[in-house]
Design goal:
- By secondary structure, the protein is α+β, with helices and mostly antiparallel strands.
- Helices cover about 35% and strands about 25% of the residues.
- It has 14 helices and 22 strands.
- The protein has an 8-stranded antiparallel sheet, sandwiched between helices. A 5-stranded parallel sheet has the order 3-2-1-4-5, with helices on both faces.
- Helix 1 links the parallel strand 1 and strand 2.
- The longest helix is centred in the middle third of the chain and has 19 residues.
- The protein is globular.
């Protein structure tokens, strides 16, 4: 086990990592930008390093500054949290050169997964179902045209090195493909330094199901069940649940087995998430591997009783998994609501500013992961997440009821938040029945706007 961990992140995940490190007896280093000098986790770290500057590029994405902070503090490990440098192979390679442990996958795994098409090929070879489409980069419009004819419209034109919902074009016709092909290549080159594209079938009204895995360096891989992540806006998740609702047991078993099989095939050795699309017909396809801790990891912690951040740190230190698959007992139902500093009444416009009052809900089965407090100023430079409200209960119905009451008791004043929008989701008939898919939020929003017009 290493002795000192530098946390290359901010916000609630930085606070979460500090607490896990302290439980393991590890010293911690916090880095911070100028607007983040008063972040909550900096009160608990053993050392602090100012990065200077405000933007993400100047600070949390600045590899030389993070490396220098490791050197001046003697940190022998880095926890990247999520976002920023969490899946940056170049950053991991620089750490490896200096003998600093990256709390995440090895650089070889990150390089495999960085190219979405290569990841798709690897899963295909491991007998994990992949979305119909090309398994090689599209060389020309003629190749694109042939594949489009084979799989049919609508389809997605995607950058091989894309990610986070970027580098994707929806193609609905041959004319659309003709207009978009060259511009998509130029956009891919400008955004990712690589103009390679591939094609996938567009699956409408699919569900987004992901599987949490843990793997050690001794060939042991386990899963901790699945999460329902279909509620999204602009391909960004809003609310997550575990376990997934209305998922047939046979299909659930196939998805969980595929995730474990995929992890073994690529030699995965840490905490990670395999993401799948599930069609209305009950077919499932691999989408991507998130080789890091996920924002929504708490719902899995709540139903499994496993501290995922602590296990991630242990696995990075080369320790064995303490749990076997048969030791994992999943119980109850958990829901996570992402509370963002956004105004749903103004097209979800960002709402940075000073929080004048911040009071969290309390009670059985209620957890709040947040770095905010009364008097804290939400800066405009980073992600708008201010808190994650996680609720557990014995079943989904009671978890929804408890979530509503927790939202009503969550007091955040001074900024607009998405709390009112979550209350609408939790009362929507289709949500209550578990009729979920990735366009759910979009359709709910359109439905609400249509109702306002009628009034």
């Amino acid at each position: 086990m290493f002795s000192k961990v530098l946390i290359a992140n901010r916000g609630e995940i930085a606070l979460r990592v500090v607490r896990a490190c302290r439980e393991l007896g590890l010293k911690t280093v916090g880095v911070f930008s100028e607007p983040d000098a008063n972040l909550l986790h900096l009160r608990f770290v053993d050392q602090k390093v100012a990065l200077g500057g405000s933007s993400a590029v100047e600070t949390y994405l600045n590899i030389p500054k993070i490396i220098r902070a490791c050197e001046v503090t003697g940190a022998d490990a880095v926890h990247p949290g999520y976002g920023f440098l969490a899946e940056n192979a170049a950053f991991v390679a620089e750490l490896e050169k200096r003998g600093i442990t990256f709390i995440g996958p090895e650089v070889s795994v990150l390089q495999k997964m960085k190219n979405k098409l290569q990841a798709k090929r690897l899963m295909h070879e491991a007998n994990v179902p992949v979305i119909p489409g090309s398994l090689e980069p599209i060389k020309s419009f003629a190749d694109a045209h042939d594949i489009a004819k084979e799989i049919g419209f609508p389809l997605l034109l995607k950058a091989c090195l894309g990610g986070g919902g970027r580098g994707i074009r929806v193609i609905t016709s041959e004319e659309d493909l003709k207009k978009s092909f060259d511009s998509a290549r130029r956009e891919a080159q400008a955004s990712f330094g690589n103009d390679e594209l591939y094609i996938e079938k567009l699956i409408n009204c699919a569900r987004h199901i992901e599987v949490q895995v843990l793997a050690d360096r001794f060939g042991n891989v386990i899963h901790l069940g699945e999460r329902e992540c279909s509620l999204q806006r602009r391909r960004q998740k809003i609310l997550e649940e575990a376990p997934a609702v209305n998922l047939p047991e046979s299909l659930r078993s196939q998805i969980l087995s595929a995730a474990v099989r995929g992890a073994k095939a690529i030699g995965y050795t840490t905490c990670g998430t395999f993401e799948f699309l599930v069609t209305p017909e009950g077919e499932f396809y691999f989408m991507e591997l998130n080789a890091r801790i996920q924002v929504e990891h708490p719902v899995t912690e709540e139903i499994s009783g496993v501290d995922l951040v602590r296990e991630q740190i242990r696995l990075a230190a080369g320790e064995r998994l303490l749990l076997r698959q048969e030791d994992i007992l999943l119980r109850g139902h958990a829901i996570e609501m992402r509370i963002n500093a956004e105004d749903p009444e103004k097209q979800f416009a960002p709402s940075p500013g000073r929080i004048t009052q911040f009071e969290i809900p309390r009670g059985p089965g209620i957890r709040v992961d947040s770095h905010c407090y009364s008097g804290y100023t939400v800066p405009p430079y980073y992600d708008s997440l201010v808190a994650k409200l996680i609720v557990w209960d014995c079943n989904r119905d009671f978890a929804i009821r408890r979530s509503r009451e927790a939202l009503r008791a969550f007091l955040i004043e001074g900024i607009a938040t998405t709390i009112p929008f979550h209350l609408k989701i939790l009362s929507h008939p289709n949500f209550l029945e578990g009729n979920l898919h990735t366009r759910f939020v979009e359709e709910m929003w359109q439905e609400a706007k249509g109702g306002e017009g009628k009034r």
